[in-house]
Amino acid sequence: SSAGVHTALVGALDLCAQFGAKQITLVMPTKGNFDGTVISEVLGKEVTKALQKSRPVNIEGVALCLESPQTLRNKMSSGVVLAAHISIKDMEIVDATHSANAILFLPWIEEEGKQWLSTWMPKVIGPNTWKASGGTLDSEVEAALDRLTRNINLGSGLGHPSDLAAARRVIATLKSDGHPIDPEEIRRWALRHNWSATAAETLKKICAK
């Protein structure tokens, strides 16, 4: 809704003030189809035209620019990222953006919003009636995952055979010791601890076996 867009934009400006950021990177599914979206209607025709031509627009002293998840990968600096109406899969790209001061997600689908909320436990801007699913991990499980994270090469995820074997050993030991293993909750933990989306998904599959 337009009210949700207004809330998200104000929240992004507030975060810029908090972090001293001078840029808001608005991430939409595609740059070419931005015109006609509820966000473009809120921003107005002139701002929409400028953004589609890759021209930043000044809003209260902050430069607003438009990117897609794919073009965001190439940005050296992104300031506060406002990801709006993109899929949870594309949010994995946004979440891996190390150049962001902060990330806001304005979901299109409620279920995807709840999924992101459950993974990151973020601060909610505006009214919230959603509840995050899942909870904390068993302390022994978390300690074992911490050790695994320190001992593998996060840059290659679980791509190296020795790292994959290490992950399998850790999960097998936890299971044999009778610790509760929730594959989805472990995937979320991995994402919060700088694992790539691919590696976190692989770890989830190991847990599910």
Describe the structure.
The chain has 209 residues and is α/β, with parallel strands linked by helices. 51% of the residues lie in helices and 13% in strands. It has 10 helices and 5 strands; from the N terminus they run αβααββαβαβααααα. It has helices at residues 2-19, 38-43, 45-52, 69-72, 88-95, 110-120, 139-151, 161-176, 183-192, 197-208, and strands at residues 23-27, 57-59, 62-67, 79-84, 100-106. A 5-stranded mixed beta sheet has the order 2-3-1-4-5, sandwiched between helices. Helix 7 (139-151) packs antiparallel against helix 8. The longest helix has 18 residues, at 2-19. It starts with a helix and ends with a helix.
Structural descriptors:
51% helix, five-stranded mixed β-sheet, elongated, 5 strands, 10 helices, alpha/beta, 209 residues, single chain
- Proportion of residues in extended strands: 5-15%
Mean pLDDT, rounded to whole units? 90
The helix-strand sequence is HEHHEEHEHEHHHHH
Q: In order across it, which strands form the biggest sheet?
A: 2-3-1-4-5
Q: Helix/strand/pairing class, anyone? A: alpha/beta
Instruction: Count every helix, treating DSSP H or I runs of 4 or more residues as helices.
Output: 10
Intertermini distance: 42 Å
Gross morphology: elongated
- Strand runs, count: 5
Stretches with pLDDT under 50, minimum 5 residues: none
Residues in helix, %: 40-55%
Radius of gyration: 19 Å
Topology:
Elements: H1 2-19, E1 23-27, H2 38-43, H3 45-52, E2 57-59, E3 62-67, H4 69-72, E4 79-84, H5 88-95, E5 100-106, H6 110-120, H7 139-151, H8 161-176, H9 183-192, H10 197-208
Parallel strand pairs: 1-3, 1-4, 4-5
Antiparallel strand pairs: 2-3
